[in-house]
Amino acid sequence: MAPAHAQRRLETPAGQTVEQGQLRRYHRRHDASRRSPFDERLRPFYHGVASGDPLPDRVILWTRVTPEEEAQVEVAWRIATDPELVEVVAGGTSMTDAGRDYTVKIDASGLLPGTTYYYGFTALGRHSITGRTRTAPLGGVARLRFAVVACANYQQGFFNGYARLAERADLDAVLHLGDYIYEYEEGGFGYSDEVGRGHEPEHEILDLDDYRIRHSFYKLDPDLRRAHQQHPFIAVWDDHETANNSWPDGAQNHQPNEGRWEDRKAGALKAYFEWMPVRPADPLDDTRIFRSIRYGDLAELFMLDTRLAGRQQQLDDSPLDSSALFDPARTLLGASQYEWLTAQLAASTARWKIIGNQVLMGQLTGFTNLDAWDGYPAERDRLLAFLEAQEMDNTVVVTGDIHTTWVGDLARDPFDPTGYDETTGAGALAVEFVTPSISSANFDELFGGPSDFLEGLLLGVHPHFKQIELDSHGYFILDLGAEAAQADWFYVNIYDETDERETFAGGWLTRSGMNHVEAAEAPAPTKSNAPAFAPEDPPISTAMEIAPGQLARGELLVVGVYPNPAVHSASLHFALRRPEHVRVSLYDAIGREVARLLDAPQPAGVYTFTFDVSSLAAGVYFTHVQAGKQIVVRNLIVR
Ligand SMILES: [Fe+2]
Question: 549 alpha carbon to ligand 1 midpoint, in Å?
Fold first, then answer.
């Protein structure tokens, strides 16, 4: 809800009146000099670069250009074998505009398998930072290393886990299991007073432009930007990329007064495909994301969508209808995804079959998590029975969503000692490794910790779980070789952005052909002679360098005006690097100032400034944003 003082009506020189906008700034307790809201050296590629979905001959390259004015922008790209981008192997140009929120996505092809490449973009006379990526290998592969991450709630903590990934040179890719963004309002779910950083826009995100601004806000985070810069991501969404506990026809966190779910979902997914380095799994179906990616003879990744592909609605537990719960037709994956997964698994000749999955697959007793596989027991049993009937070895399920560490064996009935031996692991059909959150709340933040007692209690009644840790944040490294698949957990501090430490918290492995977990003695060694990092700073640009007299230019970043055209209201998404007097005015096509929307000193920060346009005549306007000596003009069409 807008504060009352934001609704003051302003008289304008042209005699029209408009509502004064609602101005929001994210407040941070921490020293703003360490992290500016944006890095002017990156202009116009403030959101950095990213890559993803590597195949043996191609990889998705991504960036976002922020032009000085609303216009189509031509963006050139190139990919090379060296960090200096001299040995260029492919390149081209692409156009972008407001219709895709100035994002750029290239499927760069003609590449060699198992090769590290460096790439960059050029637009408006300037170069982006250089990204580093790696294609999937073909044929015989001795070893692979992936980072596995999920659940990055900006409001809950700093992204130190992403920063540590950016410092690892030997990863083949980062598997992101979802909750890349969170949809809540500022101060809502997961907001931490101790951390003191909210997000933009301030309200719960509901439409395409809201989701775009939230994605933009996340990608201005320097730790996330650095992780994307150094590694390809293989990402799937979980629920918060749309709304909490979503399923194809709704979500727990979607109410009738928030508009039609179909519209919200379509906006969220359009923004996701614009802003994420993901190759659409089906060009004809922009809601499909489940897909497989092969890494030679060593691994095949099966990235699932347990949210929007075919999930039946979560049951209500008050009271729980157990005939519905155990209905053999009840499905989490949906028929077509289940058929696809089992057919792909049966056909795969890869040694390790890695299932990238959102929700916990292992069975819990004592309570039923109706949002996880426990809420869909018949389909889980059908999948495990399929592994059993196929005598399929080396299936590793990697899971996100629950913000905590779990390691376990997957058996059809782990509580039946005649079918599963908790000491030897006999009877297990696969293993499950669960990544903690990058920053989203877990037990100690939600309920007060530490939770050693509860962890002991849970281990005592779950013979198949070997490790449960409910308080820490970070990620695990999945290290694959011919002999074993090992997961090594690393924990970080999310409350202090200057704390660069990480702690090795333990490793678990499954030996080839064994299908159950055992404790590892030490973390798997890092790879020697890993390829060079991409340089942190952008290459020197040949044109349009900031002249000494132009230094004022770098204080203001206008990311965009949304929506454009606008009907009822428009939002100006901008950032200030230092405190400035900010003036926002609307001018009409003949140069008259029709509305002075804001005229006040503002602290440094990222803003979403929303103003009413419903009283304006339809036509073309110009939004002048002045901060100190710098003026940025964006056209705005009012309908
Ligand atoms: Fe989450």
Answer: 47
